[in-house]
Amino acid sequence: MRGFQGFLGFAFLVFCAGAAQADPVTIKPDACDFALTFPDAPTQSQTKSRTNRGDDVVTNRADLKLDVNGKTNFFRIECTKIPHQGQVDEEILRQNMSDLAASYKLEAATVSVDHNKLTGAAGHIQGRAKLGGKDITLRIDRYTSTNDILDVWTGAEPDAFPSDAGTQFLKTITFNGQNLQ
User: Fold this and answer.
1) What's the rounded Cα separation, in Å, for the pair 101 and 107?
2) Which of 41, 45, 54, 121 is buried deepest, with most CB atoms within 10 A?
3) Residues 6 or more apart from 150 whose CB is under 8 A from it?
4) Among the residues of 21-160, which ranges form H helices?
5) CB of 121 closer than 8 Å to CB of 93
6) Cα angle at 18 between 16 and 21, to 5 degrees?
7) HSE-up of 75 (CA within 13 Å, CB side)?
8) What is the pLDDT of residues 83-138, one digit of tens each?
9) Is residue 122 within 8 Å of 116, Cβ to Cβ?
10) How many whole angstroms separate alpha carbon 164 and alpha carbon 148?
11) In this structure, is the dihedral angle defined by the CA atoms of residues 69, 173, 81 and 118, taken in order, positive or negative?
């Protein structure tokens, strides 16, 4: 009888562990050319503003903070639709990324710009930051299209960066249904 009770207890633990596994959630913000798959359901929000030209700007955001193997992982996307944007010049993008690193007070930030075959210029930042009082290494990738700016944030504790979850997250970025990686 004890063996059967032990088996039931073990089976219950296995069931609970399986139930605790998150289901991936694909996010494609309204009217955004980009989509990504989060490892679990993120918190979503939207902000609206105007450019100095008077154009309406809409930013859709999704955030997820997740404990993976006892380490904090952070995921965020921000898809910003700017009417009449056009292609972004690489030097302007490099300056935008430097400004972004400074505005978020990233320590030891490195900025780079390269070319993506589908979207054109792509900017990257990597540096150290604080999240909920914990030190993390943060990476921000910016992809631009003629319609959108997509910022993709991945972060993890320094000894876990880059995390497998963050690497998998980045592999899910699509632009008009085509994988960017």
Assistant:
1) 8
2) 121
3) 32, 33, 34, 77, 78, 79, 80, 142, 143, 144, 173
4) 90-103
5) yes
6) 110
7) 29
8) 767 677 888 899 999 999 999 999 999 999 998 888 888 999 999 998 888 899 99
9) yes
10) 27
11) positive
Q: Which residues contact 14 (CB under 8 A, 6 or more apart)?
A: none
For the record, the structure tokens of 19 come out as 């139930």
Name the burial class of residue 71, with classes exposed (0-12), middle (13-18) and buried (19+) by CB atoms within 10 angstroms of its CB: middle
Q: If you average pLDDT over each of 68-72, 89-93, 146-150, 171-175, which comes out highest? A: 171-175
Radius of gyration of the chain (CA): 19
- Bridge partners, residue 60, by sequence: 46, 79
One-letter amino acid identity for 166?
A: G
107 CB contacts (<8 Å, ≥6 apart)?
A: 127, 128, 129
Q: Is the pTM of this model over 0.85?
A: no
The residue among 149, 159, 163, 142 whose CA lies nearest residue 64 is 163
Closest CA to 155 of 123, 120, 125, 110: 125
Cβ atoms 79, 34 nearer than 8 A: yes
Using CA atoms, how far residue 12 sits from 22, 122, 161, in Å, is 18, 47, 33
User: What ranges in the chain are assigned the alpha helix state H?
Assistant: 2-20, 90-103, 164-171
Q: Residue type at 33? A: D
